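Subject: Predicted fold for Release factor glutamine methyltransferase, 289 residues

User T.R. writes:
Posting the sequence so we have a shared reference for the thread.
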Amino acid sequence: MSINDTDPKKTVGEVLKWASSFLKMNRREPYIAEWVMKGLFSWTITDLLSRRQTHLTEEQWTAYKQAIEECADGRPPQQVVGHEWFYGRPFTVTPDTLIPRPETEEWFHRYLKMLPEKALKVLDIGTGSGVLAVSHKLERPQDKVTAVDISPEALAVARKNAWNMGADVNFMESDVTEKVTGSFDLVLSNPPYISQNERSEMDESVLNFEPQLALFADDEGLYFYKKMAEALPRLMNKDGHIILEYGYRQGEQVKAIFEQAFPEADVVIWKDMSGHDRALHVSHIDQER
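User M.O. replies:
I've generated the structure tokens; pasting them so everyone works from the same file.
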């Protein structure tokens, strides 16, 4: 079956059936067919169901066919469509930014529920597309949010997302905290944490289409945790919080790094819905900066 084997005059339902088969034949997930159609045309699931017996326009068919071909070649559907959803909002993503994962959304939701109502100063390290910083600001407009990244291309995407959603976030180009001043009540980070030794275990679409800068870290994936553990004691306010994502095999190592950096704090591992170690929560910080 080639990309041209289907007739643009077929109904939406028939086109989806063809696209699912075409993706499966190319060893891609069949569900991508519906996901791409909804994302490409800004349709809801209700729209998709109600239009199954209708036909795509010529322009829609051309765009959809091209999108499915790109997905069949391995490009992530989020990049093909140009966005991924995070906490109920569509964020622009590009090859310069990491695609947000559901596991990140889990711990984001968890920490939001535990914060006090008072205004906080928040720092997002390695913001990428800005999903954490922008989502936090929209959920807690009283907070002052700063977001940093070493990649100017990623920062351009993050600024675009903030502008599109009306989030007042201060973005800054910085290698971790190198250019950061002031103090903070909450620090968030989903840094690069994959070791080069794990490259063979990764999905080819991630390796081929997502930015290496946002994926891999030296020192068995622990490089950025050690840099943050060294820098954050001088930046944290009393009773502040630090929440970091890490790889599911790194929990105890990251925990030990931050127990040494914050010996008086509570350092706790959070698991994700799959039962894997996923995030570290450092709280009750009480030490001299």
